[in-house]
Amino acid sequence: MLDVLPESESNVLILHATGKLTDDDYQRVLIPRLEAIIEAYGKARILIEMKEDFEGWELGAAWEDAKLGVRHRTDFEKIAVVGAPQWVDWGAKIGAHFMSGELRTYDEDDFDDALDWIQH
Length: 120
Known about the structure:
Elements: E1 2-4, E2 12-21, H1 23-41, E3 44-57, H2 59-71, E4 76-82, H3 86-95, E5 102-106, H4 111-119
Parallel strand pairs: 2-3, 3-4, 4-5
Antiparallel strand pairs: 1-2
Helix pairs in contact: 1-2
């Protein structure tokens, strides 16, 4: 499940990921919000928080994630990933080489630091 957190404003999108992400999470939550930010502000700042109950992506969601990354590879100013399992952390760092903007990863206890960085 993907939830938009109330700290989201202007070009900053703060997300909380739990369980297994689905194609529906991308179609109803992430893609519309991200594309609205890009249309209004040109570049997006994204923070995604993953707690220990995060299980990864269903196949359809993984495909949407890959397509989204390719389609919007120049549309990110900053990306912060908080509390990700090590395999997600590695994947994010590899993917960052194919996208514009800056990526930082944070331990789950460092949400406030990540939020401060993404907002400024």
